[in-house]
Amino acid sequence: RDADLVPGDDFGMMREVMRRRFSRLVKEYPGGPEAEEVPDEGFPSWPDLVLVDGGRGQLNAVLETVRELGVRGVAFVGVSKGPERNAGNEVFHLADGRTLHLDRRSPVLYYLQRLRDEAHRFAIGSHRVRRSREARGNPLDAIPGIGAARKRALLAAFGSARAVARAEVSELAAVEGISLKLAQLIHDHFR
Fold first, then answer.
1. Are 14 and 62 in contact (CB under 8 A)?
2. Residue-wise DSSP of 6-18
3. Do 163 and 81 belong to one domain?
4. What CATH number has the domain bearing residue 149?
5. What strands, in cross-sheet order, belong to the sheet with 91-94?
6. pTM above 0.70, yes or no
7. Residue-wise pLDDT tens digits, 74-89
8. What angle do the packed helices 56-69 and 10-28 form, to 10 degrees?
9. Cα separations (Å) of 107 from 22, 26, 65, 102, 110?
10. Backbone torsions φ then ψ of 132, nearest 5 degrees
11. Contact 65, 15 (CB under 8 A)
12. What does the longest C-alpha to C-alpha distance in the chain come to?
């Protein structure tokens, strides 16, 4: 995640997601989706349509970002719940400023609601996992001088915080980014 993102900044997060999603595509396929060659396996391809979970404001934030990136040939539509915020009254915001309403019994509306609900379920689940992991914490987080990069290096070298705790000073100092002084501090912390 971008360190500059403010928690709860919906527009900023939308911009970040679009930057991540399209930056590499624009670099790899500067001609856009029309000029796209067959992408490598595992490399994302150009979407035909991007549904934005939100109204005019979220859509405008997305459109501003993709224009800056030079994205062309992709349709963007914002989906909001409408003035009463009731399911079935969704408003579809088009890039040209128009809005659409689908019949409450429309199978297309039902399908789009299911897509939105699944996206929400996934986002909420991911957020819960991250919060749970943060709440549990990692014993390495309590050691002064151990930030994210050094923690990753230690965990990559030893496999777990428990293995780091059992390591000798010389083994700890052999990890890139860990000085002898810091290795001694880590060792002492677990004794």
1. yes
2. PTT-HHHHHHHHH
3. no
4. 1.10.150.20
5. 49-53, 75-80, 91-94, 99-100
6. no
7. 999 999 887 776 767 8
8. 30
9. 30, 34, 31, 9, 5
10. -65, -45
11. yes
12. 69
